[in-house]
Amino acid sequence: MSNKQDTRNGSQAGIAPLNKGLGSFDRPLAPSDISQLNWNLLREDLSLPSAVLYEEKLQHNLNWMRQFISAYGVKLAPHGKTTMAPRLFDLQLQAGAWGITLATAHQTQVAYAHGVRRVLMANQLVGKRNMAIIAELLRDLEFEFYCLVDSAEQVDQLDRYFSSRNLRLNVLVELGVTGGRAGVRNDRQLQSVLDALSGWTKSVALCGVEIYEGVLQDEASIRSLLQRAVDVTHKLTVEGRFQRAPVLLSGAGSAWYDVVAEAFSAADFGATVDIILRPGCYLTHDVGAYREAQQRILQHNPIAHQMNSGLVPALHVWAYVQSMPEAEKAIVGMGKRDAAFDSGLPVPALHFRPGNATPMPAPSHWVITKMMDQHAYLQIQTGDDLRVGDMIGFDICHPCLTFDKWRTLLILNSDYQVIDIIQTYF
């Protein structure tokens, strides 16, 4: 895995020795120097807890999604908010991603500083300083940026700001649902946005339609929203409302991307529309909600079913057993400061005793029952072969809220050797 990085604006920051989860070094190092330190997880070279990624599994997931996207003839703009790791953005772009999706002006600034030149900000751009950040980036004619609009007031605010600076902002109209997140709810709201846009075509350019189906819970409701997006795209195309060719039609989080791919590709837009899907968690996957979604996809989606494999968890948090105060309880040195706990607690995956040759699968009856800031309660059975000082690798149930707890994550090869490092920018 190469350590190619854009170094403009000082984006290649040094790795500080005080970051958690690393091995021994006494001065800031360039990311490219980390692999030369010869750290190995199994030799206890790392200070646990430590968050790690597995190179082979990352590559598998990249290849799987590329094959899936290609089969539908759509494009991929993975959501960068999941990892906020420019090194991983670069991997995704090298694997054929159309661009990177982000959620805020700051995230866009981070991506730009690390060489990303096409961003879909799947959110509304609001506020003077946020607009200023984007305006500064748009001075680079190589930078392609899109954000969302869902009200006439927002369109007017964007126009006043960007027209005064002789800049043009590309936007997609967001369609929403009652009880959901942002997005126009009905035809009347949509028309008010279109009317506002028609007066400001030089400074705010309508380029497509966007939805986020993840606010809905059942497939029937999701398909209804997708059909609405298709119908609106058709209608606005006929009316000549768009200022981009091809038009952009975008949707898909990490749970229902298969249904979005089916519905949008079935609309048979041809070359007139670029369909952009935005899943973010596929790269590292998890063993919570996204594993459940993947199981559904593998069972019901014909393309995924034919691929004979699925996404695999590529992220672990490793920690020591530090106390065994009861026959059926172990205390592990990993807590809410280290791993997500909002949509399921970490799941023991691997067990390693220092001095042994290789980790073994953790017994299926080992379960985390509670997490505190720095501790996890591990339920075991009387007589289990577990000792203080043993290491456990945990699968994660929500990648987004695990990445944001780490400034650095290490990348390991199949021998648990550290071969690379990534930095996050939350």
Short description:
By secondary structure, the protein is an alpha/beta fold.
State the oligomer.
single chain
Mean of all residue-level pLDDT scores? 95
Helix and strand composition category: alpha/beta
How does the major sheet shape up? 10 strands, mixed
SS field, number of helical segments: 12
Low-confidence parts lasting 5 or more residues at pLDDT below 50?
A: 2-11
Write down the secondary-structure element order: HEHEHEHEHEHEHEHEHEHHEEEEEEEHEE
Overall spatial form: globular
Radius of gyration: 23 Å
Using DSSP, what is the number of strands? Answer: 18
How far apart are the termini?
Answer: 23 Å
Q: Bin the helical content.
A: 25-40%
Tell me the fraction of residues in β-strands, as a range: 15-25%
Describe this structure in words.
This protein is an alpha/beta fold and 426 residues long. Helix content is 30%, strand content 23%. The protein contains 12 helices and 18 strands. Strands 1, 10, 11, 12, 13, 14, 15, 16, 17 and 18 form a 10-stranded mixed β-sheet that branches. Strands 2-9-8-7-6-5-4-3 form an 8-stranded parallel β-sheet. It is globular.
Task: Furnish the topology, listing elements before pairings.
Elements: H1 31-34, E1 50-54, H2 55-72, E2 75-76, H3 86-94, E3 100-102, H4 105-113, E4 118-124, H5 128-138, E5 144-149, H6 152-163, E6 169-175, H7 187-198, E7 204-211, H8 219-238, E8 247-251, H9 257-266, E9 273-277, H10 289-300, H11 302-306, E10 315-326, E11 329-332, E12 347-352, E13 360-361, E14 367-371, E15 376-379, E16 391-395, H12 400-403, E17 408-412, E18 418-423
Parallel strand pairs: 1-17, 2-9, 3-4, 4-5, 5-6, 6-7, 7-8, 8-9
Antiparallel strand pairs: 1-10, 10-11, 10-16, 11-15, 12-13, 12-16, 14-15, 17-18
